[in-house]
Please model this.
Amino acid sequence: MHRFIGHLYRLLYLLDNTFFFEVRMRSWLNWVLVTCALLGLLIHVPGRFHVALSLLALMLLLSLLSRYARRRYYVHFVPETPEPPEDPPPPLWPHDKLLHHATGHFEVEGKEGNWTRLIAYYRTFETREHAIMARLTPIRFLRIGEFPPHHLGMWYQFVTPENLLDVTPGRIYFGGKEEPALRLRYRRFNEKGKPLEDVFYLHFETDEDRARVQSDLLLDQGGPARRPWRPPIPQ
Model:
């Protein structure tokens, strides 16, 4: 069931975020469904009213599902409680960058966007500010739908220790993929400076990578670490 939801959310994500001739793919699908419903009513065949109503009901259902999935950034996250390691992994040094995927609200040069499973790097600076540096790459949906060209490129999210509210490990589902993940509950600010609570998801290839980033994040909340975060100063 989890994988089915992941496949459904990916379909909805691509319908909502890819375009053909500058028209959203969801709009193309809606027009096709409405056109088929009207043609069904004009053609005098048995059951044409039921067919038309079914097509319109499908359009409404997809719209409601899309709204539900959009609030969850089109990913299905299942919290879990992994066994704590006997020896907590070390946090990241300021020069370390860990490759992963990221989902959530991003910003760049005055633009904002909500993107799902972008390839990204995680990094923590000396100030303990956590940076997620992601890239939106071209994609083809049904061989015709594409992301808008002006959205392609780098996107960023920065989380400071005082705005990191909670870190939850779990499994995340998107498309046919099941991955270890972290859900970050954090505070961000809109263009008017109003604080907003939001969530951000980090997808990982391995449980070890997740444990390392989780250990790094938990330092801001008094969590354990295997070694001091800063290297010792030579005497």
